[in-house]
Amino acid sequence: MDTGDYLIKIRNNSFDSELVESGATPLKLNTGDYLFIYNSARKGYPSVKPNWQLQYNIGYAILAGTDPTQVLQRSDQPIMSPKLDWEIGNSTDYLTPNVVFLEGKIL
Questions:
Q1: What does the alpha-carbon distance between residue 19 and residue 59 come to, in Å, rounded to a whole number?
Q2: How far is 72 from 66, CA to CA, in rounded Å?
Q3: Which of UniProt's keywords are assigned here (predicted)?
Q4: Phi/psi zone of residue 11: left (φ > 0), alpha (ψ -120 to 50 degrees), beta?
Q5: Which of 20, 57, 63, 76 meets the CB 3.0–4.6 Å disulfide criterion with 68?
Q6: How far is CA 36 from the centre of its chain?
């Protein structure tokens, strides 16, 4: 099944080098452009979970209001990364360590 073109692609040597997936629906800004928050992953973060070395982060992109397929700006660094004990999950009590997701928004 063809799902079309990817708008936000993975980038080498970046916080979003392994995975990019949609977060909450885009938020229309005062400029008419859109703030798009996305979830991402990168390798290199060993954990207590066998064969798991991913760290999930949150990034953003600004999409053109006149053509949302055009990316005007994109975060160079994650705007949120796992930092708290329950996000890092350094014990076998946690299902998936090193993860933060953004799946909704409140206006």
A1: 11
A2: 11
A3: Glycosyltransferase, Transferase
A4: beta
A5: 63
A6: 10
Please, is 49 exposed, middle or buried when counting C-beta atoms within 10 Å of its C-beta (0-12, 13-18, 19+)?
A: middle
Domain layout of the chain by residue ranges: 1-102
Structure tokens at 42: 């990168």
CA-based end-to-end distance of the chain: 35
What are the Cα distances from residue 37, in Å, to 31, 63, 78?
Answer: 17, 11, 10
Q: Write the pLDDT tens digit of every residue in 23-82.
A: 889 999 999 999 999 999 999 888 877 788 899 999 999 999 999 999 999 999 999 999
CA–CA separation, 42 vs 21, rounded Å?
13
Helix, strand or coil, per DSSP, at residue 78: coil
By the 8 A CB rule, do 84 and 62 touch?
no
Q: What pTM, to 2 d.p., does this model score?
A: 0.85
* Amino acid (1-letter code) at residue 80: M
Find out whether 9 and 21 touch, Cβ atoms under 8 Å: no
